[in-house]
Every structure is written in C-alpha cells, then in structure tokens.
Design brief:
alpha+beta, five-stranded mixed sheet, 15 helices, 10 strands, about 55% helix, globular, disordered C terminus
C-alpha cells in the first residue's frame, strides 16, 4: 500500500501485474480517482481494459472496497458498450462483403478478445473498386482521408454512421508498404472460422496471425502494447502453432528474424511478471536479434529501438525480397525510410504525422 503518486511507469507496471502475474494482487496500491482514470486511459491505449479491470474488480470485491469496485464496474460497462456496438458493425461489414463474393478476413481486431482495438481491421482479395462501391453504396460509408502510407499499403479507412471506430480494409497486399503480395494471397485459404455469439468470423491461421502482428509492431510502428504481449502469449500457450511452417513462411517473406525477436520479447516480458518463460523452440531463440531487455517504456508504449535493431530487421526483409526477385515489392519497401523520415519530421514540426504515416 502506498500514498505516493503513481506515474505512467507505475501504472504500466500495475497493468502488467494485473495481466500476467500469478498471485501478487495483495501488493496493489490504493488508487486515487485521478490515478484510476489515468490507468483506465492507459489500459485503453493498450487495449486491455476488459482483462485488467475484470481482475481488478475481483480484487476490489475481495477487499470490500465498494467505492473502487464501482469505479471499475463503470469502466467495464462503458467499454463493453463500445465493444458490443463495434462488433455489431463488424458483423454487418463482413456479411456485406461475403454476400458480394468478397473475402472478409478479420485481422488484428479479434486477437484482443475480450477486448477490442481502436479500429476494425479486415483483409480482402477483392478489387478496391468493388469494395469501395459496396462500402459506400450498401453501408453508406464515407472514405476517410488516405495517408501516403495507406496508399502504399493499399488500404482504405471507412467511416460508418453510428460507429466511432474506423473500418480499415487491406486489399490484396500486406506489409508496411504493401510489399507482401504472396503472403496476402494465401491468407484467405489458410483462414479459420471463429464463432462469436451468433456469428462466425473468418480470422487468420495462428502462424499468419503471428506474422501479421510482427509486421505491425516490429516493422511499422516500432512499439508494443500490452495487448500484443498478452494476445501472443495466450496464442502460444493455448493453440497449436506449427513452428516449422511459421519459420518457412516468415523466412520466405524476409521477416523470420523479426518474428523470432517478437516472440522472444513476449516470452521475456511475461517472465518478468510470471516468473516463468513461454516455451519457445530453440530455432526461435537462435534467430532472435534481441529480447525484452532492449524494450523501453516511452510516450505511453513499449518502444522497440529503431537503431540499430529495427533497421537491421528492415534490411533483412529488403535483402530477402531482392534475392527472391520480387523487384516491385523491393521498390515499395525502399520507400519506407523516406516515409518514416517524413513522418518523424511532420511530427516534430506540427505535432502530427497525419497524412504521411
């Protein structure tokens, strides 16, 4: 129990303990209203509100802390309302796409269950013109402004009436600059059904899900959220992962070292709070470039060092594409440093990278 004010580092540690520790609940501090609100805001950024607040509510009930029990319950109910609304729209979008013969693979968004991300992400092999026409005419969606990065990645964001979140649809390409075409083309045939309520969604196979998360975290944003660690840890421990298939596919696309590094970071981070590793094959550990000791908390997230670590991962992907003769993909990927530099400059000058990244 403590009376010292908890800063963002303390709150991240608290959320991490709620997510991963096994039996340290008695050491939780007594939160002020302001600290609790800041913790919920941080949990929202990391897409772990439902999971952390559910455990915290149980602790408040055990401690008979009725005031904080009400705070937690209010946060849970507010987030549940948001998620229920978003899922109802996700069902509509998937039904609309499949009714017109389009693939509708939900990527990333449903990985966080019982939480949900800040937008709804899908992938389809359908032609952009068909998808845009369907979204705007059948669902009355508006097309959001597209950044340079959106155009390279071949993705569109749609605004639906009554839905605060964007619907982001990747079309025919994956990767930070849309360089991974072959991988994208196999996503649908390898997808599986995920029952949720009275509806089933198509989601990527476990191996593809790990590759997609790696692409987003290690090659695009260069930071991790608690949900990425928790989602991946749960997948590795509850589902059958074909590591040989994962290594083969990731190596073919030049991102095996990134995947191995991402999985090592996840295992290390969980070990810090749980006291035991996630069991990973030796092939993963040997291919990993670094672990969680190189990750630092900054600006609300767990930051992956761009230099030299992420730069080396980028160089490895670029080299693989060159050696595989994928010249168009290589040319697209070559634009990433320029894009990242422009985004960083825009952030520094205007405080936003909007329109670039």
């Amino acid at each position: 129990m403590t009376t010292a004010y908890l800063d963002s580092n303390d709150l991240l540690d608290l959320l991490s303990r709620l997510m991963f520790s096994e039996g340290t609940g008695n050491a939780l501090p007594v939160l002020s209203r302001k600290e609790f609100q800041e913790m919920v805001s941080l949990a929202n950024s990391h897409h772990v509100v439902m999971r952390t607040m559910d455990r915290l509510r149980g602790m408040m009930a055990t401690a008979r802390d009725s005031e904080r029990y009400e705070w937690v319950t209010e946060a849970i109910e507010c987030e549940r309302t948001r998620i229920d609304n978003a899922l109802s729209f996700l069902r509509q979008v998937c039904r609309a796409l499949t009714s017109e013969g389009c693939d509708a693979i939900v990527i990333k968004s449903l990985d966080h269950l019982p939480d949900l991300g800040s937008d709804l992400d899908l992938y389809t092999n359908a032609e952009p013109a068909k998808v845009i026409r369907l979204m705007t005419h059948k669902l009355n969606a508006q097309i959001a402004a597209r950044s340079w990065g959106d155009r390279l990645a071949n993705k569109w964001n749609f605004i639906l009436p009554g839905l605060p979140e964007f619907v982001e649809i990747h079309m025919g390409r994956l990767g930070q600059t849309g360089e991974l075409i072959d991988f994208a083309n196999t996503l649908s045939e390898r997808s599986r059904s995920l029952p949720l309520g009275n509806h089933s969604f198509r989601v990527p196979a476990a191996e593809d899900r790990l590759m997609i998360c790696t692409l987003q975290r290690m090659y695009r944003h260069f930071y991790l959220r608690l949900c990425d660690i928790a989602d991946t840890a749960e997948l590795l421990e509850t589902e059958v992962v074909d590591y040989d298939e994962l290594q083969s596919a990731a190596r073919e696309n030049g991102i095996w070292e990134g995947v191995a590094t991402f999985l090592t970071i996840v295992s290390d981070y969980v070990h810090n709070y749980r006291g035991r590793d996630i069991v990973l094959p030796s092939s993963v550990r040997s291919a990993s470039r670094f672990g969680a000791d190189q990750v630092r908390f900054g600006k609300g997230f767990l930051r992956v060092p761009i230099l030299p670590h992420s730069a080396r991962l980028y160089a490895s992907e670029w080299t693989t594409l060159v050696l595989n003769g994928q010249l168009r993909s290589t040319a697209r990927l070559s634009l990433l440093p320029c894009l990242a530099t422009a985004a960083a400059l825009g952030q520094k000058i205007t405080g936003s990278d909007k329109g670039i990244w």
